[in-house]
Protein: Peptidase M19
Amino acid sequence: MINWDAHACLPQHPLADFTPVRRLHAAGVNYVSLNVGADMNPVSQVMSVIAGYRATIAADPQRYVLVNSVDDIIQAAADGRMAITFDLEGSMPLLDQPDMVALYAQLGVRQIHFAYNRNNSVAGGCHDEPRGLTALGQRMVEAVNANGILMDCSHTGRLCSLEIMNASSQPVIFSHANPYTLVQHGRNVTDEQIRACAATGGVVCVSGLSFFLGSAQPGADDVARHAAYIADLVGVKHVGIGLDICFQQPGLDDTPPGDFDPSHWWPASAGYSMDQPPSFTPPEVWRELPGALRRAGMSDIEIELVLGRNMMRVAQQVWSVPEQLAKAA
Structure:
């Protein structure tokens, strides 16, 4: 069985310690998507992070491997190595150039969403004035589809996410988002969004963040409750896990350079407080998830789907697009 964590965050620094990745692997995770930047990070910082992460992975080939396909992930699991790809949270690192998508794909980015909480030139964020996908955004969706990158709608505004899902020719995911019906937070997704995601063939991956789970100290049963809700709404084939654990490391300052204002990205009006940061499920919660999902009413086969097989199915389809296009040409 492959356990797939659709989103995790190390410090946005080239010298980030990969010990948290080893903890995830020890807890049974076979694949993780590591964030390498968001809308608040300039391209210079994003590229520095990618270079640093790639160097760390390359320096320890017995432990890590940067993968390009689901077959690579299966092989990595057989070899006892952690499979890794990267993701971007927002389109601003694309510099309004659809051609940048192909470059990031070559560097290991296999997943992207277009807006981190706030509106930009491409898409609308979930903590901003409602706005749909722009004309440039339509071209960006086409570029993401053509380059075999998972189209993600986490952090995206509701209207815009629906338009992205309508525009995409490939399945769309929410790599770390929870049902709004269970916890009324602007980062969570409505039943309409969940149904639209499932209609694309996509997957909604449950986050382990306290704000979105509705638990001050979230654990496996909290994650399972949200997963079970999505399964009951649209079917178990559209549920995954993306715990969104953010690992801070003393001594590494990954604050974006320039005039960075945290309250802009995480506004108090949306329920955030700089004095009360969120808590996260620990990596070891992965060991407890099978039991928690079983208590939530899932069979062993359904648990395998949620913990990895659903995301494997979608990635298999999406990541193989460039190869299919090359054969057709």
